[in-house]
Amino acid sequence: MSLKVEIVMVTPFQQNCSVIWCTETKEAAVVDAGGDIEQIMAVINKHSLNVKQLLLTHGHLDHAGGAKPLSEKLSVPIIGPGIEDKYWLDDITTHSKNYGMTGMYSCTPDQWLQDKQQVQVGKQTLDVYHCPGHTPGHVIFHNKESHLAFVGDVLFKGSIGRTDFPGGDHATLLNSIKTQLWPLGGETQFISGHGEISDFKTERATNPFVADSVLGT
After folding, report:
1. Is the distance from CB of 128 to CB of 141 less than 8 angstroms?
2. What is the distance between the alpha carbons of residues 204 and 142, in angstroms, rounded to a whole number?
3. Count of alpha carbons within 13 angstroms of residue 24, beta-carbon side
4. Predicted confidence band at 217 (pLDDT cuts at 50, 70, 90)?
5. Terminal-to-terminal C-alpha distance of the chain
6. Chain mean pLDDT for the chain
7. Distance in angstroms (rounded) separating the CA atoms of residues 183 and 120
8. I need a surface site. Which of 17, 131, 145, 199 has the fewest CB within 10 A?
9. Neighbours of 140 (CB within 10 A)
10. Alpha carbons within 13 A on the beta-carbon side of 97
């Protein structure tokens, strides 16, 4: 029994949408359905998955713009992020038009998430951690059994999330990484919103923004 993942790169921002499922039950969730829902559906259909929910790490359009149409297509709820990101989710339609994008819509989650809640994907458990800084309501999902985390735009291989958007804060982001991500263990691999997979041990050793040698941890 384990959690399997297939990454679908969506939107012109090349966002890593993750289709995840419990291998025992084939029950699935989609993390950060930013857009291009036809591509996401192709993965769902390829593996004959029973999607139960859409999970959002935060409210930026490239992570949440496809949630409303995909939710309607699959008749499943949208779960997350924290309610502090409501203003981002409310403006997706406007922001996407400003970027000249189509098929991306504002949405209202069926459930907001808070720190230390849990989400079930079949028989697999995702622990929820509130990690503000990139956005105020940003959350990440961690599967303890698979040593795998879905961290949105909190942390990247060799970098960290931007903090110059409304509601962003650099010091808050660094604190989220130190107090919420690092305690999950160096062996934890993470899938970011953009770029390659890495693990916390590597980032603590080499990331120029949050390495132990930089933060003094």
Report:
1. yes
2. 18
3. 6
4. low
5. 35
6. 97
7. 22
8. 145
9. 26
10. 5
Cis peptide before 69 (omega within 30 of 0): no
At 106 the three-state DSSP class reads coil
Q: What is the pLDDT of residues 64-91, one digit of tens each?
A: 999 999 999 999 999 999 999 999 999 9
CA distance 137 to 73: 26
DSSP secondary structure code for residue 57 in this structure: S
Tokens of 13: 């921002």
Between CA 146 and CA 117 the distance in angstroms is 18
Using DSSP's 3-state secondary structure scheme, residue 202 falls into helix
Number of domains in the chain: 1
Phi then psi for residue 184, to 5 deg, are -75, -10
Calpha distance 93→105 (Å, rounded) = 5
The residue range of the domain holding 23 is 3-215
What value does the mean pLDDT take over residues 13-23?
A: 97
User: CATH number, domain at 13?
Assistant: 3.60.15.10
Instruction: Give strand ranges (E) for the chain.
Output: 3-10, 15-22, 27-31, 50-55, 78-79, 118-121, 124-130, 139-143, 148-152, 155-156, 159-160, 189-192, 198-199
Q: What is the model's pLDDT at position 201? A: 98
Residue that the structure tokens 């458990």 belong to: 125
Cβ contact 158:207 at 8 Å: yes
Beta 148-152 vs 189-192: how paired, if at all?
parallel
**pLDDT tens-place string over residues 30-74:** 999 999 999 999 999 999 999 999 999 999 999 999 999 999 999
